[in-house]
Structure formats: structure tokens, C-alpha cells
From TrEMBL:
<dbReference type="GO" id="GO:0005743">
    <property type="term" value="C:mitochondrial inner membrane"/>
</dbReference>
<dbReference type="InterPro" id="IPR003177">
    <property type="entry name" value="Cytc_oxidase_su7a_met"/>
</dbReference>
<dbReference type="InterPro" id="IPR036539">
    <property type="entry name" value="Cyt_c_oxidase_su7a_sf"/>
</dbReference>
<feature type="transmembrane region" description="Helical">
    <location>
        <begin position="63"/>
        <end position="86"/>
    </location>
</feature>
<keyword id="KW-0809">Transit peptide</keyword>
<dbReference type="Pfam" id="PF02238">
    <property type="entry name" value="COX7a"/>
</dbReference>
<comment type="similarity">
    <text>Belongs to the cytochrome c oxidase VIIa family.</text>
</comment>
<keyword id="KW-0496">Mitochondrion</keyword>
<dbReference type="GO" id="GO:0006123">
    <property type="term" value="P:mitochondrial electron transport, cytochrome c to oxygen"/>
</dbReference>
<dbReference type="GO" id="GO:0045277">
    <property type="term" value="C:respiratory chain complex IV"/>
</dbReference>
<dbReference type="GO" id="GO:0097250">
    <property type="term" value="P:mitochondrial respirasome assembly"/>
</dbReference>
<keyword id="KW-0472">Membrane</keyword>
<dbReference type="InterPro" id="IPR039297">
    <property type="entry name" value="COX7a"/>
</dbReference>
<keyword id="KW-0812">Transmembrane</keyword>
<keyword id="KW-0999">Mitochondrion inner membrane</keyword>
<protein>
    <submittedName>
        <fullName>COX7R oxidase</fullName>
    </submittedName>
</protein>
<dbReference type="GO" id="GO:0002082">
    <property type="term" value="P:regulation of oxidative phosphorylation"/>
</dbReference>
Length: 92
């Protein structure tokens, strides 16, 4: 009779009811429905206007840059004040 399998050879029960689709099975039109913005952004970022790359997109970039700088300077000042306070001896 031979050896009997210890583990069941039946396939396990299906956990998720949805089937998976491979990328090669999808039609090319359904994979991306938006406009490709990369060429437009390349033109914008490669324009020789003297601005650094992190400020090329105008007001939102300037706002983010200035907010970041303000938080960095504020955090540095806060750390220096905390260090100064921690270095002072406590009065009894």
C-alpha cells in the first residue's frame, strides 16, 4: 500500500472571494486613466529661470519652504533655551 500522506493534499478553502488580475491581463487603457504630467513637469523644472528646484512651482513651494525654515529656526531656539535652562543649578 505504501506511505500515506501526513498532510492533506486537498487545496485549502478560499479565504478571499475575489480573483487577482495580473498586470499583463489588464487592457492598456484601463491601467491609467489620467493625463501624463511628466513632460510638463520636466519642462517646468528644467527651465533656466535662476530659481532653485524646490521653489519652481510658485506660491505653494514658497509657503512650504518658509514654513519649514520657520519651524527649523524656532526648534533651534527652543532647544537652545531648554539647554540653557537645564544648565542652570536649581535653587534650594
Amino acid at each position: 500500500q505504501g506511505f500515506k500522506p501526513i498532510v492533506s493534499t486537498d487545496s485549502p478553502a478560499l479565504i478571499f472571494g475575489t480573483t487577482t488580475k495580473l498586470a499583463s491581463d489588464l487592457p492598456a487603457t484601463d491601467s491609467f486613466l489620467g493625463k501624463n504630467k511628466v513632460p510638463d513637469l520636466q519642462k517646468l523644472f528644467q527651465k533656466a529661470d535662476g530659481l532653485p528646484v524646490h521653489l519652481k512651482r510658485g506660491v505653494p513651494d514658497k509657503l512650504l519652504y518658509r514654513t519649514t525654515m520657520a519651524l527649523t529656526i524656532g526648534g533651534t531656539i527652543y532647544c537652545l533655551v531648554a539647554l540653557y535652562i537645564a544648565s542652570q543649578p536649581r535653587n534650594q
